[in-house]
Amino acid sequence: MNVAIVKYNAGNIYSVVNALKRLGVEPLLTDSPELLASSDRVLFPGQGEARQAMTYLREHGLDQVIRDLRQPVLGICIGQQLMCRHSEEGDTDCLGIFPVDVLRFQPQRHEDKVPHMGWNSIDVRGKMEDGRCEKLLDGLGDNPYVYFVHSYYVPVCEFTSATCDYIVPFSAALHRDNFHATQFHPEKSGSVGERILKQFLDNS
After folding, report:
1. Is residue 145 classed exposed, middle or buried when 0-12, 13-18 and 19+ CB atoms within 10 A define those classes?
2. 96: CATH
3. I need a surface site. Which of 85, 108, 183, 190 has the fewest CB within 10 A?
4. Counted domains in the chain
């Protein structure tokens, strides 16, 4: 299986590379449209600032490449946010794969810290007719814990496949056609995250 990771100006990509290697996969880190389009799976991870990331993607023609991908795609953290329509971070127009806007957390109480950082539980939604969840999140158990680091969030919407509650309920994961996305970091989420990555590779 050929697995590609989108190479752009975002941090934390190598933790995803290492997580895939632990699963026996040697991913290709690339910004080549041809290599991304011909891969069996594409991951779009990273940490960073939305406007700078979108500027890089547009300058390198990767914005349209990502929109046009037809194989399973997994966005992680800022990858999920960039797959949405617009971000309050830098008033940035994004890829528009998920037609929903990304908002900044607004603390309501003294104990509400931004960024949302650390372990939190998620609630998996969207049961299919056979009782299973969307394939990426199937079999995780009740309210599994995963690792978050983010100041912006995607509101709950029709494409939400898992929610988390921090200050407000938000989309911990999204799914539309061949596009999957998680706000949390599966590569930092222990056995739960490992299962998610494996299911993306095997079943998505």
Report:
1. middle
2. 3.40.50.880
3. 108
4. 1
Nearest residue to 8 via CA among 92, 91, 65, 85: 65
Q: How far apart are CA 44 and CA 80, in angstroms?
A: 8
What is the C-alpha end-to-end distance of the chain, expressed in Å? 13
Residue 77 bears catalytic tag: yes
Catalytic residue among 116, 150, 175, 185: 185
Instruction: Look up the pTM and report it.
Output: 0.93
Active site residue 194: no
d(CA 10, CA 2) in angstroms, rounded, equals: 22
Among the options 116, 133, 175, 187, which is catalytic? 187
Structural domain for 49, as ranges = 3-203
3-state SS assignment for residue 56: helix
Query: Is 89 annotated as catalytic?
Result: no
- Tens of pLDDT along 144-197? 999 999 999 999 999 999 999 999 999 999 999 999 999 999 999 999 999 999
Cα gap 121→202, rounded to integer Å: 24
